[in-house]
Amino acid sequence: MSLDVDNMTFTHDHTAIQNPTCSDCGRFVVSPKEYGFEVWGTGGGCSAWVKKVDNGYVVLTSDYLSHELGGALSPFEMGFYDGSDDETWGNLMGIKDLLVGVIPE
Question: 49 with 37: CB under 8 angstroms?
Fold first, then answer.
């Protein structure tokens, strides 16, 4: 499992994933848990969906700094971190604004 920051994807089961709230066929809304994400506390009562990959971390959060991403078409951010520091995920390498259940064009 790895990050491709240039294309803002990560690999899951040999497939490049653009939005971890979409099923692999792109027709259904799914929980990031389906792609191996876990909820982590980030301090101050905030939380995020986090997935460790070979070369860093993928982090999902809502506008309210929460793992609660909302229903279909709700906005959230997917950030890619280099993993240089396990306590803070390291340096932010890229971030993408997404909508729950929508594969970006």
Answer: yes
CB 30 within 8 A of CB 23: yes
Q: Which residues is 92 bridged to in the sheet?
A: 81
Q: Which residue type does 32 have?
A: P
Cα 98 to its chain centre, rounded Å, is 10
Instruction: Take residue 68 and report the two structure tokens written for it.
Output: 């609660």
Q: What is the C-alpha to C-alpha distance for residues 15 and 11, in angstroms, rounded to an integer?
A: 5
Whether pTM exceeds 0.85: yes
Tens digit of each residue's pLDDT (9 = 90 or more) over 43-88: 888 999 999 998 899 999 998 889 999 999 999 999 999 999 877 8
CA–CA separation, 9 vs 96, rounded Å?
A: 10
What are the beta bridge partners of residue 47?
41
